[in-house]
Design brief:
By secondary structure, the protein is mostly helical. The chain has two domains: about 1-80; about 100-294, no CATH class. Helices cover about 90% and strands about 0% of the residues.
Length: about 290
């Protein structure tokens, strides 16, 4: 009986000890969880504080940068407004170069361009479709004779039609007379095409000369200023040289512009003259065939 009570007592003590150990372990686990949760909460709070600080710093940076950007934009707008345009720069250089010589250079440009534009318009109107004209003249000659062919030439503009008319008008005098009349009247038409070219070439040569003369006079003025001042000042020398260079550049620019127009006009005249010569040979062949059919 005593042994039974002793066993029950031992069993009760073991059971009580195990329960205390379990409770202790549970309390330790809960303590660890609570500590971990507290650490996590503290970490979240620190991250939140760090994020808020970063946002605040960015806001401050943006506030600092925005006025700087606005100031830069205002400065750029002011520079654009203050920058003179091409027209104003040309006007300023024209005044700095001296009204006298710059006016003569400008006059040479205006007159040269006027003559060049007049020649270009005249040459474009003088251009003719020679193949179409030859076909029309041949058809009219075969159907209505010389008078019909002359009427076709009379109603057509251009130097080629005028040459054809002179050749057809002397067709009854023989082919040799027709050739001579075509050659002679072709020289007349070529002279009309080249009318005014000598004046354009004159202004091409005159514009740089005027610029160089302005250069020489500007240098003379610079040396006069040095003599009057009694000292070589960079400001005095630079002013005279600047005027000299502006007149020189202006004369060269005018000459280059007129030279381009001159070369175009010469090439256009050469093209028309070649068409005249080819068409004249074809006209002689047409008249020869026509006379053989009689």
């Amino acid at each position: 009986m005593k042994k039974l009570f002793a066993l029950i007592a031992v069993f009760g003590m073991l059971t009580y000890g195990a329960s205390n150990v379990a409770v202790a372990q549970d309390e330790a686990t809960e303590t660890t969880v609570v500590e971990n949760e507290g650490a996590a909460a503290e970490g979240v709070a620190e991250e939140a504080e760090t994020t808020e600080d970063a946002v605040a710093e960015e806001a401050v940076t943006e506030e600092v940068e925005t006025p700087a950007e606005e100031v830069a934009t205002e400065e750029e707008i002011a520079e654009i407004i203050e920058t003179p345009g091409m027209h104003q720069q040309i006007k300023q250089k024209f005044i700095e170069g001296g009204a006298g010589f710059m006016s003569t250079v400008l006059l040479a440009l205006v007159l040269g361009l006027a003559l060049a534009i007049e020649r270009i318009i005249y040459l474009n109107l003088a251009s003719t479709n020679t193949e179409k004209l030859l076909t029309s003249v041949e058809d009219a000659l075969n159907s209505g004779g010389v008078d019909a062919a002359k009427e076709v030439c009379r109603n057509t503009k251009g130097p080629v039609a005028s040459i054809f008319y002179q050749g057809l008008d002397r067709s009854d005098q023989g082919i040799e007379i027709v050739e001579k009349s075509v050659i002679s009247y072709g020289s007349v038409q070529m002279g009309l095409l080249e009318k005014g070219l000598t004046w354009i070439s004159l202004f091409i040569a005159l514009a740089p000369m005027l610029g160089f003369m302005g250069t020489v006079i500007g240098m003379i003025g610079a040396f006069d200023s040095i003599e009057a001042a009694g000292d070589i000042s960079p400001t005095l020398v630079a002013g005279g040289i600047k005027v000299a260079l502006i007149t020189t550049v202006s004369g060269l620019i005018v000459a280059m512009i007129l030279q381009v127009f001159y070369n175009y006009i010469v090439s256009k005249i050469d093209s028309i003259v070649n068409d005249m010569e080819d068409a004249s040979i074809s006209l002689i062949d047409i008249l020869t065939k026509y006379n053989l059919k009689k």
